[in-house]
Each structure stands twice: as C-alpha cells, then as structure tokens.
Amino acid sequence: VDRYGYVRKALHGMRMLSAEEVQAVYGKQRCRVDLREPRWSFLNTLFSVASGCFFAQLVERTDASSLGDVASPLTSDYRELSRIVESAVSEAHVEGTLKKQILANPEKYVELDSEAALVLLDQKLAGKRLVLITNNDWDYTRKMMSYAY
C-alpha cells in the first residue's frame, strides 16, 4: 500500500500478483490502513519475516490441497491459518523447543563463517570496542557463541 492508500504490489502465497491481478482485486479503490487493526502484521524483524514466509508457504499448500493436488488437513480460512502460524511460532519461541533443538545439533542449523572471527579480531586489533547485542537469553547466547567461535 502506498502513502495514498492504493495497493501497488500484492502476493498470494509465494506468488507476486501481476499488475492486472492487483487491479482486478483492488481496482482504483483506496485501502484504508489503520495499523492498530489486528488484520495488519508487521514484518520488520528477521523473526517476523520467517513467520510471514511460513504463512505464505502454508497458503500455497492450502490452495494446492483445495485443488486436490495435495492432501492436507489445513483450513482454507486464511485468517485461521494466520492464527495457527502465530500460535505455533509463539509456542516454539516461548517454550524454547526451537532453541533446544538447535543447541542439541548446531551443525545441522548453523552455517559457520570462517572469516567472521578474523573480521572481529581485525576490529579489536584496530582498537575498536566490540559488543554483542541480542534478545536471546545468556545461556543460549553463550552456547551459540562457543560453538561459532
């Protein structure tokens, strides 16, 4: 949605809609955007972008199952699908199941960068002060940093 309230780009699942499809769905009508409404979700962190991609992929799967291409127990109600994704992601994040799985087998989930340590060392040798800022707990951060470095 642009600053005037017109829809310029849209996706359905993982597929970008053509200009003609956007026009057919939204026409020349203005889209009233009130970001306080629950129908809007912010995708402004890597974590939320991952949730958005998960939702888009489930939309693809749901659409395929409704066409008979794939057997799926998923609902075809996109609002309900969004609620399911939000609940699943929250459960994995809040209960720590995802972190436990990563810590149990980091080589499966973490791609090590041999250059990263050298870059940090160069910065330190150049007199720069380094700090790690994260929203993860200390135990997880310490274990991940120990694995990576």
UniProtKB/TrEMBL annotation:
Question: Origin organism of this chain?
Answer: Polarella glacialis
Record-level Gene Ontology MF annotations: 5'-nucleotidase activity; metal ion binding
Q: Which InterPro entries match?
A: HAD-like_sf, HAD-SF_hydro_IG_5-nucl, HAD_sf
Record-linked Pfam families = 5_nucleotid
In the record, the note on similarity to other proteins reads: Belongs to the 5'(3')-deoxyribonucleotidase family.
Indicate the secretion signal residues.
Answer: none
- Know the name of this protein? Uncharacterized protein
In which domain of life is the source organism classified? Eukaryota
Keywords associated with the record: Hydrolase, Magnesium, Metal-binding
